[in-house]
Amino acid sequence: MKIVVLLLLFAPMYLMHGQPDFKIQKSGNERLIKALNNAEQIAKNNENYLSVRVYKLDNGPGSAESESCEVSHNVLVAVSEFDTAPMQNVFEIGPFINPEFLSWSEVKEYERSFLIEYGDYDNRKKKGLRVNIDNLKVY
Question: Could you tell me which of 139, 129, 109 has the C-alpha nearest to residue 43?
Answer without folding.
Answer: 129
